[in-house]
UniProtKB/TrEMBL annotation:
Organism: Sphingobium naphthae
Pfam families (alphabetical): PNPOx_N
Domain Pyridoxamine 5'-phosphate oxidase N-terminal: 152-253
Gene3D superfamilies in alphabetical order: Electron Transport, Fmn-binding Protein, Chain A
Protein name according to UniProt: Pyridoxamine 5'-phosphate oxidase family protein
């Protein structure tokens, strides 16, 4: 399997391709009105905190409005973090905000600016919307309240959602969602946990980070249950056919498999999930993810003719509806 190992960014891009330039245009450097609305309506956040020595992952959650912020700063109550000890001043931060019943997610990256008596304050560097493919594949919002297995192997086999926290050589954290049917989300093979890469937004920040710095943390979730599995270890990327073929779904074999040499694997109840009360889905929102995507591209400060043309095109009336149709088609045709 060593001959199939991915050890450089160039090798990674030769397998999955380079990030398309339009993907960079959806990233803004602050929390705009749409992002703040999203955060105020969210019941659950996955968050990674890290530094040069590694990264940890935790959840925060409660009723909508548990997190808040302004254009430059995100604020999360320490009491609503499952593991508040991870939040240290100066730590890199990557987060994923979920909206009940919505497939798309909001990603926020930055750095812990400070800890006061009640909150962790994060200086925001990046904010962008993430496509719905991971949540669609996991059928996250179709779940009903459920019991999770007490056995680690059984829990991993039943999991359908994974949040991956990584940190790169430059100290930037990333929190990436993964989703798949039970049995294909993650698999244990001795002391190694395996999962696969699937089509997504093609930014692949998490895999670039793994190439640079392999220490990772991840949380596995069984939709409907309040228990999670938290794994820490060293990740490696491979194109080995045997590793990839174990994750074939609908006759589609992933291009890349990820193996994590497990240092710790802990099953734990998540108070954040219990407070969030995600299942059954009952919260309605008028937030339109396609509208958020459009507004972020308009707000992006990138220069150049391509960026200017993209922003001009998105000012045409009706373009949000066209984007939504394009997303829906992509979700139907390119899940695997």
């Amino acid at each position: 399997m060593s001959g199939a190992a991915i050890t450089t960014v160039a090798e990674l891009e030769s397998v999955i391709g380079r990030t398309p330039p339009p993907m960079h245009l959806k990233v803004i450097d602050h929390l705009d009105v749409g992002a703040l609305r999203w955060i105020s309506a969210s019941q659950l956040m996955f968050a990674g905190f890290g530094d040069g020595s590694g990264v940890g992952i935790t959840l925060a959650g409660s009723a909508p409005g548990f997190a808040s912020g302004d254009a430059q700063e995100l604020r999360v109550p320490l009491a609503l973090l499952d593991d508040p000890a991870l939040a240290q001043p100066g730590a890199a931060f990557g987060a994923l905000f979920l909206l009940s019943g919505i497939g798309e997610t909001l990603r926020v990256n930055g750095r812990v600016a400070g800890i006061d008596a009640d909150h962790v304050r994060v200086a925001v560097d990046e904010c962008y919307g993430h496509c719905a493919k991971a949540l669609i594949r996991s059928e996250l919002w179709a779940a009903q309240p459920a019991h999770a297995p007490d056995d680690s192997a059984a829990f991993v086999a039943a999991s359908r959602f994974l949040a991956l926290a990584t940190i790169g050589a430059e100290g930037r954290a990333d929190l990436s969602p993964k989703g798949d049917p039970a049995g294909c989300m993650a698999q244990l093979d001795g002391d190694v946990l395996w999962f696969a890469d699937r089509p997504g937004n093609r930014r692949v920040d998490s895999f670039r980070n793994v190439v640079e710095q392999p220490n990772i943390a991840l949380a596995l979730l069984i939709p409907g249950a309040n228990r999670i599995a938290v794994v820490r270890g060293q990740a490696r990327l491979t194109t080995d056919a045997t590793a990839r073929e174990r994750f074939t779904v609908k006759d589609k074999t992933p291009l890349l498999a990820i193996g994590v040499e497990i240092e710790t694997l802990d099953l734990r109840e998540s108070p954040a999930l219990a407070r969030a009360g995600l299942w059954p889905v009952h919260t309605e929102t008028d937030i339109d993810p396609a509208e958020l995507f459009v507004e972020h591209i308009k707000l992006n400060k990138a220069g150049g003719i391509g960026a200017s043309l993209a922003r001009a095109t998105l000012s045409v009336p009706g373009v949000t509806g066209l984007l939504k149709k394009g997303l829906d088609k992509d979700y139907r045709d390119n899940l695997y």
